[in-house]
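Q: Structure tokens for this one, please.
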Amino acid sequence: MKVIIFFLFSFIGIQITNDKLDEKNGFDNYIFGTSPMAYNNLVFEIEEDQTKLYSCSNITTKISGVEFEYIRITFYKDKLCAIAIQTRNATGTNLLKFLTEKYGKPKVSKIGYEWVGNKVQLTFESFNSGKDAMASFSNKVIFDSKK
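A: Here is the predicted structure, written as tokens:
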């Protein structure tokens, strides 16, 4: 009976996490589905077919104890579909702590950790001996439309 209750609570916890990730539908003020025109701090990087990658020239995102190397955002058919953030100065563990507090306990994946919602997926990967990290948010609905 205890095992059944544990799995029930685990499943409920996963649902809450998924809902939180889907409700946010992006990261900070970067919202999936918006156009590049919604942002004034973008620097164009590359374009391939209908996909464009931009870097953020002025990072205004603030997370306690986290320093950002970059924030890059990708648009497909002028709709924001992916957000990649990378830490610097050994602040990756602080980012993981923030994401866990915000979205719940992640699943362990081949590359690190992941949170999976119905529409949004978030992956977290450490590097530099675990000191820094990259987190990638993607909108599965917009990515699926690329196929």
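A few notes: The helical segments are 2-24, 92-103, 140-144. The first strand starts at residue 26 and ends at 27.
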